Amino acid sequence: MTLLQNPRQLFVKALLASGFALLLVAIMTIMADRVSAHGYVDSPGSRAILCKNGVNTDCGAIVYEPQSLEAPKGFPAAGPADGKIASAGGAFPKLDEQSSTRWSKVALSGGQQTFTWKFTANHATTSFRYFITKPNWDPNSPLTRNQFESTPFCTVNYGGAQPPMTYSHTCNVPTDRTGYHVILAVWDIDNTVNAFYNAIDVNLSGTSNGDTTAPTAPANLSASNVAANSATVSWSASTDNVGVAGYRIFNGSTQIGSTTGALTYNLTGLSANTAYNITVRAFDAAGNVSAASNAVTFTTPNISGPDTVAPTAPGGLHVMGSATQNSVPLMWSASTDNVGVTGYQIFRGTTLVATVSGTTLEYLVTGLSANTAYTFTVKAIDAAGNVSAASNAVNVTTPSAPTTYPAWSSTQVYVGGDKVTYNGVNYEAKWWTLNNIPGTPAGDVWKVIL
């Protein structure tokens, strides 16, 4: 016997199915935008990147986007709330689970150590700062400001410039503590209200315990898969009296990458028809660095014939920070090109508002109107004039202009309901008042309004 469904039941099922599909599309779109930015500590491995690499388990969604631990800057006075420091505000709550055994720990000794950041959007940077838990901290309690020293043990000022996509620097890790500690790495963005927070779980051995022996130099360095914009280098392992912690890759005297044990490295972002001189050095946990490996030299090939290949579309366009009544700060992820990206075009609707260099991944759009809806996209261009497809569109409505009222006067009598502006803040009188200054203890007759 065949059961028939009435048209109303079929309509409801179709509506539910289409609604579920739209929900999935929305979730995938949100995740795609978040995955595109911004950066994480790769070495010593942060809690987030060890989750992505499978060293830490049961981590939640952070395995897809270790680069997205973003929260207001200003730590420790501001920033993520206590108990949500490791997750940068709670978006990835698994990271805030805290006990002495919850997370894998990176072996580290006190003294000079190298910290390496990897970026998916290398924003203009104020500084990199590093905080460490106090000697008597409780590893079985949530991470709070009181668990950390209030002053960073290392600050690397960057002056508002953009770091390379992989950036390393050295810091002197405190030598006065041992065992399990958490280092909080903070990347302060220069021209927005945000920063990125990475918790690094370390097992400290105090000082270097007298280890002054450097690893042996890596051997048999070779290059393969040399293309116009990329190449692969590989080498044989070094040895050390304690243990090799990783390798640093150099072009001439400039460090261009590092690994935490891998014996191969993919060089990307190279320039066509350019000579490179690559060496590798090993380092150990005490900060000892080996002599250089044998040098490998190669010249990337030129692109023959006219360049007709457009760059890929910029990804992850988003508002970095907050829009104002007259401006919107935009950021995006880099495009790639068979020769090289030379610039980015920023559009408001169909109007080109600016063109920036190929190394710039952010732009502050100004001259906007309050309480107005705008749509922004970005396109990449190359030296041959090829233009990419547009990035994802970002829709932004600028905030309304704040309401202002007559300036408060010390000689005027006000009654309940009267509104004034004083020192840029709007107030409303609760009752009769004369010469009670708003915003002071004597001015409690005034209440703040928008």
UniProtKB/TrEMBL annotation:
<feature type="domain" description="Fibronectin type-III">
    <location>
        <begin position="313"/>
        <end position="401"/>
    </location>
</feature>
<keyword id="KW-0624">Polysaccharide degradation</keyword>
<feature type="domain" description="Fibronectin type-III">
    <location>
        <begin position="217"/>
        <end position="303"/>
    </location>
</feature>
<keyword id="KW-0378">Hydrolase</keyword>
<dbReference type="InterPro" id="IPR003610">
    <property type="entry name" value="CBM5/12"/>
</dbReference>
<dbReference type="InterPro" id="IPR003961">
    <property type="entry name" value="FN3_dom"/>
</dbReference>
<dbReference type="Pfam" id="PF02839">
    <property type="entry name" value="CBM_5_12"/>
</dbReference>
<protein>
    <submittedName>
        <fullName>Chitin-binding protein</fullName>
    </submittedName>
</protein>
<keyword id="KW-0119">Carbohydrate metabolism</keyword>
<dbReference type="GO" id="GO:0004553">
    <property type="term" value="F:hydrolase activity, hydrolyzing O-glycosyl compounds"/>
</dbReference>
<dbReference type="Pfam" id="PF03067">
    <property type="entry name" value="LPMO_10"/>
</dbReference>
<dbReference type="GO" id="GO:0005576">
    <property type="term" value="C:extracellular region"/>
</dbReference>
<keyword id="KW-0964">Secreted</keyword>
<dbReference type="InterPro" id="IPR036116">
    <property type="entry name" value="FN3_sf"/>
</dbReference>
<keyword id="KW-0732">Signal</keyword>
<dbReference type="InterPro" id="IPR004302">
    <property type="entry name" value="Cellulose/chitin-bd_N"/>
</dbReference>
<dbReference type="InterPro" id="IPR013783">
    <property type="entry name" value="Ig-like_fold"/>
</dbReference>
<dbReference type="InterPro" id="IPR051024">
    <property type="entry name" value="GlcNAc_Chitin_IntDeg"/>
</dbReference>
<dbReference type="InterPro" id="IPR036573">
    <property type="entry name" value="CBM_sf_5/12"/>
</dbReference>
<keyword id="KW-0326">Glycosidase</keyword>
<dbReference type="GO" id="GO:0000272">
    <property type="term" value="P:polysaccharide catabolic process"/>
</dbReference>
<dbReference type="Pfam" id="PF00041">
    <property type="entry name" value="fn3"/>
</dbReference>
<dbReference type="GO" id="GO:0030246">
    <property type="term" value="F:carbohydrate binding"/>
</dbReference>
<dbReference type="InterPro" id="IPR014756">
    <property type="entry name" value="Ig_E-set"/>
</dbReference>
